[in-house]
Write a structure and sequence with these properties.
The structure is a homodimer of 417-residue chains.
Chain A lengths: L5 H15 L4 H17 L1 H17 L4 H7 L3 H16 L7 E6 L5 E8 L2 E6 L4 H12 L3 E5 L5 H17 L7 E3 L5 H7 L8 E5 L2 H10 L12 E5 L5 H13 L8 E7 H15 L5 E4 L1 H6 L4 E2 L2 H4 L7 E7 L2 H11 L4 E5 L3 H10 L4 E6 L16 E3 L7 E3 L5 E12 L3
């Protein structure tokens, strides 16, 4: 088995994490602000490295939209730096004692927020994730091991090098952030089995990447991302509100996990509502695919197959399912959703509460666009991803999701009887 | 590949979990109390089933101590029932809204505690775990799939059958608790890959079982159990207190994960302290294995090998490492511990704080026995296990560890600009 140096990377990361564990907030913020400045000062150098990646991608015939995501421009570098400054301005989650109670035997037992330790991030082509993931992990006191897309390797190496210099200038090991340099899949697989050194692995990217990490990792994973999000238009919905919300959730940005992919509509209002919806969405060229009753209500609706109900289009396509009751809507959603974001549009109090209670998802909305599922919109000031699993963190993950806790116990000689 | 019916079990569990998701606290408590009574009323029947398991185990030549763990007696059945009644008396964690904030755009965003959904438990021979794990999962609103040791199969089936009848008598599906009947390893492996139906897998048992689940499961796992726990006797330790704490942590119960396995002692006090310790532990027949300085200080100390530092003896053996500083103690502990429970005995304020800050474990103690790491001792009223990982739950896990959260968002037509 080829050695990709992962054990050595892991060992160094664990060592760095021990130092970061006790690094004060002032030092961490200083590093973040200086790293932001250093990235701006090294703009030319970063763009040179990036130009190599872009040239290679063009030579390999990469799709234009992907090349665009890969590109670094002065504006984007400015954006990356602003991101780091913003992270510096956030409150440090580490060290907070969440609760402390005195037990009858006199023991004081408290629960304290601590860094996780070593975080691994596996992601695709955007080089901005490199600085962003470092910033969030670092602020929460964690060392981070990054494995970015091979297409962005030169760009990522340049970014990590600049940050490493700032870390060292501040007396911290450059290994607080390390990049796995190999593009080989076997290197990724070895990273996913580095239980001794990596405490959690967060994949950021498409459904294929996430599935591969969940399948192959023995390191605990936080599953992020895929969103087959529904909006249910209830019998009592305010049509104008429903149209606004669906248009926003479907078209404001299509390639994102919190975009709406499927409309569920009560059969009593389908005939009136669907023609209005088709009219509203037609300037945005949204393709509608529905069941037979939806097609009967609005002739521009194409025929949906079973596969459509489970598809995250990430495109200007909306599936439409007609239901005869709220119960049927909830059961359809719970069957086909990915546990991301779901919305009911209703004026009925009891139905709103029932939907909130019974729909199984990270974020359940009454009368608002699913597009709000986002760390910034939720007021966390940052986001490392959106968890669609139920352990540790669910929904948008800010700095707190990058921490763990430990119990601290103050005694004066207690022994167990 | 043989079909062990796991997909069907998973499907039923998911369906039951949808129903349990909205089951009220009064109904859940009623079921728990009735199940407790039903187990007592079926005492003869349970003991008959158990006798088959015991006879088979004896015929197979199982160790006496393991057969003892397997046995059901009237007292043990009473204990199991009392456990269920106690769970009924605990506060229901489900439904609590942990926080709710209004965003500038008027959205009310709250975080609500909800059941996890379907919990899988893989455990070894004790039939009491069957009722206990059901009780905790059920109270937290989860369906549970149990895979107990093959040695206890008849006992477990009898217990699950009694509980299933109580569930059905109360209008709930018996599939709120299901037992995987096959003892085949392949059945366990299939259970570990049932991501579609199982939200979390909790192994309860020895290090081998836990390692196998961590290695093979694609379902998220909460790692529990193994404890290579240290007590560090600092330069300034009160010797009498240190002796009490070490004796308690080492000998009060030896086969448990929160027992002390290793003593770390400051070289300045080793010569005085170790003879006192040897004298104190000699009536309990504790074997001492130490480094050369420890052996030099107390002649009954045998020679320890590198392997000893990493060993969870679960036996009347204590390893002894001599260090020249608090830093060396912390670094030794962080290198060899399993992240369970660690203690410093000291009268020095700064050293106590440093130890609490820098030792990486679920529970870090000053001047108290590590034996307190336990859900009951921590005041949770119950325990499903002790997590030694950093995600989701760390340390003793009570009912809250068996819940997740979801964001509930109240809007009035908000769309994202």
């Amino acid at each position: 088995m080829q050695d990709y140096g992962l054990t050595e990377i892991g060992r160094k990361a664990r060592k760095a994490s021990r130092i970061l564990n006790t690094a004060g907030c002032l030092l961490k913020n200083k590093v973040l602000v200086q790293a932001a400045l250093a990235l701006e000062e090294n703009q030319e150098h970063l763009m040179e490295a990036n130009a190599k990646d872009v040239a290679a991608a063009e030579a390999a015939g990469m799709k234009h939209s992907l090349i665009d995501r890969l590109k670094l421009t002065p504006e984007r570098i400015k954006g990356i730096s602003e991101g780091l400054r913003q992270i510096a301005s956030l409150e440090d989650p580490v060290g907070e004692v969440l609760s402390m109670k005195k037990r009858p035997n006199g023991l004081m037992i408290g629960q304290k927020r601590v860094p996780i330790g070593v975080v691994g991030i596996i992601y695709e082509s955007r080089p901005n994730v490199t600085a962003d993931a470092f910033g969030l992990c670092f602020k929460a006191g964690n060392a981070v091991i990054l494995k970015g897309g091979s297409d962005a390797l030169a760009s990522n190496q340049a970014i990590v090098k600049v940050i490493g210099q700032v870390l060292e200038a501040n007396g911290l090991p450059a290994s607080c952030v390390q990049l796995v340099a190999s593009a080989d899949r076997e290197a990724a697989r070895q990273m996913m089995r580095l239980n001794q050194y990596i405490d959690v692995l967060i994949p950021r990217g498409g459904a294929g990447l996430i599935r591969s990490v969940v399948e192959n990792s023995t390191v605990p994973v936080i599953e992020t991302g895929t969103g087959n999000c529904h909006i249910y238009v209830d019998e009592s919905a305010d049509f104008a509100m429903a149209l606004d919300i669906i248009e926003n959730a479907k078209t404001q940005r299509t390639g994102v996990c919190n975009a709406c992919e499927s409309l569920v509509v009560h059969s009593v209002v389908a005939e009136k509502f669907l023609p209005l919806l088709a009219k509203r969405l037609s300037p945005k060229q949204v393709e509608l695919r529905g069941d037979s009753r939806a097609a009967g209500a609005e002739r521009s609706v194409l025929s949906a197959s079973e596969e459509d109900w489970g598809t995250e289009y990430l495109d200007l396509i909306l599936s439409i399912k007609t239901v005869d009751s709220l119960e049927e809507a909830i059961s359809h959603i719970n069957r086909y959703n990915t546990g991301h974001s779901e919305c009911i549009v209703t004026e009925n109090y009891a139905n709103a509460q029932k939907f909130l209670d019974e729909v199984d998802a990270a974020a359940v909305y009454v009368n608002a666009s699913t597009r709000f599922t986002d760390g910034f919109e939720f007021g966390f000031g940052a986001e490392i991803g959106i968890s669609t699993q139920k352990l540790h963190a669910r929904g948008p993950m800010g700095l707190e999701a990058l921490t763990s806790t430990k119990y601290i116990i103050y005694g004066n000689g207690q022994v167990r009887p």
